[in-house]
Design a protein that fits this description.
This protein is of the alpha/beta class. 32% of the residues lie in helices and 24% in strands. Strands 1, 2, 3, 4, 5, 6, 7, 8, 9, 10, 11, 12, 13 and 14 form a 14-stranded mixed beta sheet that branches. The longest helix has 20 residues.
C-alpha cells in the first residue's frame, strides 16, 4: 500500500490526539511561564518523539510572567454594590476610582465625543454588528489613550462567564483592568447611563521568567523548510481545551500522519508548539528570531484547528495558499472554508512580519465571536475526537503539498502587508493595541 493512504488509514483509529488533549486539559493551569505551561511543553515533546519526530526538544525564552491575585469591583454610586470580577492578564496592581463610562463595543465610534478622562471605562467583548472584529487590546488601548483610570471588559454572552485575555503584548498594562460576566456588564451599562461611579482594585504582579517552546523535524535535510506551529499555553481560569488544546492535538495528529508518510516528503518539516501566545505572541516571536526565516518556505499556524467540524483557512495576504488548499479539498472531499483574512493576533504574525507566507487553520464556529474561549467553560467536553483526527489529516496533507519541490508560495513584502492593513482600516486599531510596527511609520 502507498505510504499516504496507509498513513491516513492509521489516523482514523488513532486515539493519541485525544490523549494529548486530555493530558493538557488535566493540568491545573497552562498560563504562560507557570509550571503547567512547562509541563504542557514536556507532554508535547513526548508526543512528538513518540510520533517519530526527530530531535524533539524544549527551548526556553525570556518572558514577563504575570501572576493573578485578588480582584474587587464595587459600584459606589448611585448604589453601593459589589460585583464578581477577575483581573485581566498584564493588569498592574492598583485601584481605579471614577465615574462609569460605557464605550459600547470599544470601537472608535464608542469613544467619539465621549470623555473618558479619569473614568472607569466599560466595554463589551463583542464587535459592532456587520463590522470587523475589534480586539480587546484595541479597546484597552483606546481607553488608556483617553486618560481612563481603569477598564472593565464584559462578556457579550450570558452564562455568568467573565472572558479573560491579555491587555498588552508581552508587557504590563498602564491601568488596572478586569473582566466581568455579561450579566454584570448589563448592570454596569445601566449604572453608566445613570451617572454611576465605581472602584476597581487589582492585586497582581509581573516578574521576569521563562516560557518554553518545543520543536523537532521530519523529512529530508533540505536548505528550506515548512514550519507548523500551535500554541500550548492557555489562560489560567479554564482548561484551554478549544483554545488551544485542540490546535496542539491537531498538530500531534498531523505529525503522526507526516511521520508515517515521511518517505514522500520532499522538504524538511519543522513541527512545534509555542508558549506565550495568550500574552502577546512572545513564544512565536522567540521561535521566529531563532530560525533563519529566509529559509522558511511557509508557516502553518494551527490556532483554532480541531475545534469544530469544518476547517477554515485564513490566507493572511497570500492568495497562492488557496490553490494548495483546493487541491487538498478536492483530494479528500472534505470542505475547507477559505477566507482572505489578514490579522496580527496569532502566532503567524512574527513570521509574516519577517516575510514568511503564513496560513492559519481555524474552524468554522457556530457563532460570531470567541464563544467558550477565554472562559472557565472552555473544557474538554466541548471537543469531538473525530474532528481532531480529521483536521490533523487535512493539516498533514496541506503540509505535504507545501513541502513539494514544485510548490511555490510568494513571500509577502512589508509594503504589501502594510498596504493591505491600511486599506482594511486596521492601522488605528493596531496602533491602539500597540502592535503596529514602528518602522512602518
Amino acid at each position: 500500500m502507498d505510504a499516504v493512504p496507509r498513513a491516513l488509514g492509521q489516523a482514523w483509529t488513532d486515539d493519541t490526539p485525544w490523549d494529548v488533549l486530555t493530558a493538557l486539559t488535566a493540568l491545573d493551569s497552562r498560563m504562560a511561564g507557570h509550571a503547567g505551561d512547562r509541563r504542557a511543553a514536556e507532554h508535547v515533546v513526548d508526543a512528538l518523539g513518540e510520533a517519530g519526530v526527530r530531535d524533539a526538544t524544549t527551548e526556553p525564552f525570556p518572558l514577563p510572567v504575570w501572576t493573578r491575585g485578588d480582584c474587587a469591583l464595587r459600584v459606589t454610586a448611585p448604589d453601593e454594590r459589589a460585583f464578581d470580577a477577575i483581573a485581566l492578564p498584564y493588569a498592574p496592581a492598583g485601584t481605579a476610582t471614577g465615574r462609569l463610562v460605557s464605550a459600547g463595543y470599544g470601537a472608535p465610534a464608542g469613544f467619539d465625543g465621549v470623555d473618558v478622562e479619569g473614568a472607569v471605562v466599560v466595554a463589551s467583548t463583542g464587535s459592532p454588528p456587520g463590522g470587523d472584529r475589534v480586539h480587546r487590546m484595541e479597546k484597552y488601548g483606546r481607553a488608556v489613550a483617553g486618560g481612563a483610570a481603569g477598564f472593565v471588559f464584559h462578556n457579550q454572552r450570558d452564562g455568568q462567564l467573565p472572558q479573560t485575555g491579555a491587555l498588552r503584548g508581552g508587557r504590563v498594562g498602564e491601568r488596572p483592568a478586569a473582566s466581568v460576566s455579561g450579566e454584570v456588564g448589563s448592570w454596569l451599562e445601566s449604572y453608566a447611563e445613570r451617572g454611576g461611579a465605581a472602584e476597581l482594585t487589582v492585586d497582581a504582579h509581573t516578574e521576569p521568567g521563562t516560557g518554553v517552546n518545543t520543536h523537532g523535524v521530519l523529512g529530508p535535510d533540505t536548505p528550506t523548510e515548512v514550519v507548523v506551529i500551535a500554541h500550548h499555553d492557555a489562560h489560567d481560569i479554564g482548561e484551554g481545551a478549544l483554545d488551544n488544546g485542540c490546535g496542539v492535538a491537531t498538530l500531534v495528529a498531523a505529525a503522526r500522519v507526516l511521520a508515517a508518510m515521511e518517505s514522500v516528503l520532499e522538504t524538511r518539516v519543522r513541527l512545534g508548539t509555542v508558549s506565550g501566545e495568550e500574552v502577546g505572541l512572545v513564544g512565536a516571536s522567540a521561535l521566529a528570531d531563532g530560525l533563519d526565516t529566509d529559509a522558511v518556505r511557509a508557516v502553518v499556524n494551527l490556532d483554532g484547528a480541531g475545534r469544530y467540524r469544518t476547517l477554515r483557512a485564513f490566507l493572511h495576504a497570500t492568495p497562492a495558499f488557496a490553490d494548495v488548499l483546493a487541491a487538498v479539498e478536492d483530494a479528500t472531499g472534505h470542505p475547507i472554508d477559505v477566507v482572505d483574512t489578514l490579522h496580527p493576533y496569532s502566532d503567524h504574525w512574527p513570521f509574516l512580519r519577517a516575510g514568511v507566507p503564513a496560513v492559519q487553520l481555524h474552524s468554522v464556529t457556530p457563532e460570531r465571536g470567541r464563544g467558550w474561549g477565554h472562559t472557565q467553560a472552555d473544557t474538554r467536553d466541548k471537543v469531538d475526537a473525530r474532528t481532531l483526527r480529521e483536521h490533523g489529516m487535512l493539516a498533514a496533507l496541506l503540509v505535504r503539498e507545501l513541502a513539494r519541490e514544485g510548490t511555490t508560495i510568494p513571500r509577502a513584502s512589508q509594503a504589501t502587508l502594510r498596504r493591505r492593513l491600511v486599506d482594511a482600516g486596521m492601522r488605528s486599531g493596531m496602533v491602539a493595541a500597540d502592535v503596529w510596527p514602528a518602522a512602518w511609520d
